[in-house]
Design brief:
single chain; mainly alpha; about 60% helix
Length: about 300
Amino acid sequence: MSGEEARLAFLEWLGRERRAAPLTVEAYSADIAGFLGFLTQHLGGEPDLAALAALRAADLRAWLAAEAAAGAGNATRARHLAAVRSFFRFLARRQGVDNPALKLIATPRGKRPVPRALGTGQAREVTERIAEMSDAAAMQARDTALFTLLYGCGLRIAEALALDVRDAPDAVLRVVGKGGKERIVPVLPAVREAVAAWLALHPDRQPDSPLFLGARGGRLDPAVAQRTLRNFRRLSGLPEHATPHALRHSFATHLLAGGADLRAIQDLLGHASLSTTQRYTAVDEARLMEVWRKAHPRA
């Protein structure tokens, strides 16, 4: 069996037996075809099952190096390697092709993007002027309360919109985050005041009613909140990364800049791992370097 015949058999198995989505099958098809195309040039001919079984770790590293030279980043190469590994697992089960060299290849590690926070003035502008996006007093109060809560407590948009009236913050706010993990976040007076102003106009203050209502009386859709901020940032000249999630990033970044402990920020954000929170140190270092470049006479 040729490598191409093996690829087609793998794709048929993936689609029919594993019932993978068409786009998934298409992606695997392209990834395996690229791998086999490299081997055809690297080995001097189209590989068959025997050639695939005989591949060395050096051959696989040469393939990944060629991908990098062609401009593929670590995340892309990691995805391609995952596809090849799935292909070889299929060959091992169906064709008895066992190649231990794959176990010697480390998955390329992609860099996690640095969180993009707003400046303190930009974050304050959102919370103080977002009401301008609506003519109705109730909607003005709702939007002000929502975005003040995101920035003042570092919530994810889904966490904020999952709150009910009974959850309205007092001195502290109980938040249920990813994986059902609960955390307690202290609430600033400005946040309490904004939420109280909205509750005074809330049309349905039953304890189990959504804290943030949409136009039809149901729970506010995240897309509506995102669109509101998108329209505001364009009218106000704010950067394109001014999103609801950027307010959460801003909460963490501004706390860190003010001297807050990383462990405390981890607890406030509900991160399972400190390494996730440590990404904010890169933001702070970048800010310090920018200040240095602007202020130091020898910069």
